[in-house]
Specification:
The protein is mainly beta. It is 4% helix and 36% strand. The strands form three sheets. It has a five-stranded antiparallel sheet, with no helix packed on it. Strands 1-2-5 form a three-stranded antiparallel sheet, with no helix packed on it. Strands 3-10-11 form a three-stranded parallel sheet, with no helix packed on it. GO terms for molecular function: carbon-sulfur lyase activity; metal ion binding.
Length: 135
Amino acid sequence: MSKVSASCHCGAVRFEVEQPTQVLDCNCSHCRLYGSLIAYYPQRDVHFASPPDTFIYMWGDRELEFHHCRTCGCATHTTLVGTVDAEKIGVNARLIRGLDPKRVRLVQKNNGNDGIFWTHTESPVLPSHDAPPSE
């Protein structure tokens, strides 16, 4: 695997990760409105150039922290509330420079519970963790 660089629009939040093999297209209202595609890594494998200067937005069950650059507002990454060395955090793969979408598996998750996605994949859509039981 090779390391790839990523940054928000203004460059204030920069990090390096291994090139992702898969990204998640979540259609919850936050990810859909920001256009995020999420790549997951152990937190210790995400190397920020300096401590990220972000503001945190939380909603719903208030278990996820959505980090945004304080300067340009880009959605940069997500963490579980109160974790410092989490098993995984999500980084916005759209910030990765030179990432070839054709070389990365796309997984869709229906957290918006409407089945609507801007992306296209042949893989089945994963159900929301809040999806009602099937009949």
